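Project standup — Tuesday

K.O.: blocked on the structure for the chain from last sprint. Re-posting the sequence here as requested.
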Amino acid sequence: MSKDDRLFEIADSQQGYFTAKQAEECGFYASHFSRYVSSGRWIKEQRGIYRLAHYSVTERPELVLWMLWSRSKGGAIQGTWSHETALDIYELSDVMPAKMHMTVPMGFRKSVPIPKLLVLHRAELSASEIRVQQGYRVTTPLRTLQDILAEGSLSREFVVQAIQEALQRGLVSRQDLKKHSDPEVSKEFTRLIDDYHL
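H.V.: unblocked you, prediction finished:
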């Protein structure tokens, strides 16, 4: 497989995006990157993040772009879309978040300022609480609802709507919602389910 094919395979799994490190691992020399950009083959999106110029633009490219931004120095993705942004991804409520919500590990550090459009939540997510889709990571519907309820920043109307939609679509069960490690969150789910006959 040629280096171009290897890079396309990676970029194709990330909606056309790739990192400088990924390109180098495919056999491209960092000293030649500017040539690929000036020739129109690549588009430089951010420091260390590129996109194949002729790759079709997808519906939500920002979800992958900021995932790649969250990578560690070693290149590992650290961020997971969560809270209001995860609700939006799953279309579980009519909430229109003004900022993008991402959960990162407790020890997350970046050498650059955090962009104002991002709200970072710190938590250690287990593999069972994360879904990988279309080149980005998002908390599962259950973890998303738990986060929203525990944080308490959304109006009750949106929380109820999200729970109702998730239950109707079979994304979560009433039993799962009521089994939370925090007794207060568990009680609140039970209260909402009973009060609104969900």
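K.O.: great, moving the ticket to review. Residues 179 and 186 are 6 Å apart (CA to CA). The longest helix spans residues 156-168.
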